[in-house]
Amino acid sequence: MKEKDSQFSNSLIAWYLENARILPWRSTRDPYLVWLSEIILQQTRVDQGMPYYNRFSQAFPTVHHLADASEETVFKLWQGLGYYSRARNLHFTAKYVSNELDGVFPTSYSELIKLKGVGDYTASAIASICSDEAQAVVDGNVYRVLSRVFGLDTPIDTTLGKRQFRELAQQLIDPKQPGTYNQAIMEFGARYCVPRNPTCEGCIFQSKCVGYKLGKVGELPVKKGKTKVRPVYHNYLVVTSEDGKTLLEKREGRGIWQGLYQFPMTESDQPIGSALPDTVLELYQSKYGLRSVIRYKEEPVIHLLSHRKIYAHFWILQTEELKKEGVDYSRIEEFAVPVLLDNFIREFPVFASGK
């Protein structure tokens, strides 16, 4: 390791040892628990992910417990975290490790990278923390720190950029304490070298930071392309009955919220206006003998995803009874639903009261 590289890693580790947050997954080298924390914290802030880690580690103390759980149970505990493919991959990998590897969770990068839902970053993190393997992590936090301190303006969403940052990260890692180094750079990026308004005054790298010297901290890291966000319109049909039931359906096939439950829904690329389509009304009238149909609120609920902007309306369809196919109001909270629907269920008086 070159002298300037060792100075960088030494400064970072010294800062971390003095300033690191006390987090439950940092007190263990159990690869299962470290893996659990890494999957939960992907695209999730620590303060948001902490309750979920506690919930999962308590409900499933070993990989066998997670493997034996139903998908519905896993999704319900995951509810609100988003990116449900992570939960699906989490469950799949737990079953694989439990059944095919006799519950022995891998700790080497070469074996970890083979697991479903485990990419370069996660494999590097687990291998470095649990088996002291010198594999550098590269995530959003690392891109920010390295691009600013070393003045790298190669777009991070290009093949060249990914290679350059990976090579630099590997060059900088402390081979004697790789796990500590990796956690240090992630911590520094998450708390100090943040995306907007980073704390440059008093920063341990201020005198060496190229981005700071050039006044380009706010421009780094560079990204070539931006995700196009497409507007979509969801119209949820909330059937309520005098016998205290509603309708829920499971989302099948691929796509967002696969495997979660929802009220029957129609999706379109344009608003449908102030009334439901006649075809929808006729179908539900013939099946359930509707007494009234009203839109819950005039203004749509806006729900942002990484690639979609959802405008949601909830239509209340009242009927006399739903019999066997209906779900009792008191049981709604047993089903894993998208946070958009969970918020509605908590707000809607009929469901909130359980009546």
TrEMBL record:
SMART domains (UniProt xref): ENDO3c (SM00478)
CDD domains: ENDO3c (cd00056), NUDIX_DNA_Glycosylase_C-MutY (cd03431)
Reaction catalysis annotation: Hydrolyzes free adenine bases from 7,8-dihydro-8-oxoguanine:adenine mismatched double-stranded DNA, leaving an apurinic site
Requisite cofactors: [4Fe-4S] cluster
Residue ranges occupied by any HhH-GPD domain in the UniProt entry: 40-191
BP GO terms, sorted: base-excision repair; mismatch repair
Keyword list, A-Z: 4Fe-4S, DNA damage, DNA repair, Glycosidase, Hydrolase, Iron, Iron-sulfur, Metal-binding
Top EC group: hydrolase
Protein EC: 3.2.2.31
Cofactor note: Binds 1 [4Fe-4S] cluster.
An annotated Gene Ontology molecular function: adenine/guanine mispair binding
Taxonomic superkingdom: Bacteria
NCBIfam families registered for this protein in UniProt: mutY
Function: Adenine glycosylase active on G-A mispairs. MutY also corrects error-prone DNA synthesis past GO lesions which are due to the oxidatively damaged form of guanine: 7,8-dihydro-8-oxoguanine (8-oxo-dGTP).
Family assignment from sequence similarity: Belongs to the Nth/MutY family.
Protein name as catalogued: Adenine DNA glycosylase
Native organism taxonomy: Bacteria, Pseudomonadati, Bacteroidota, Flavobacteriia, Flavobacteriales
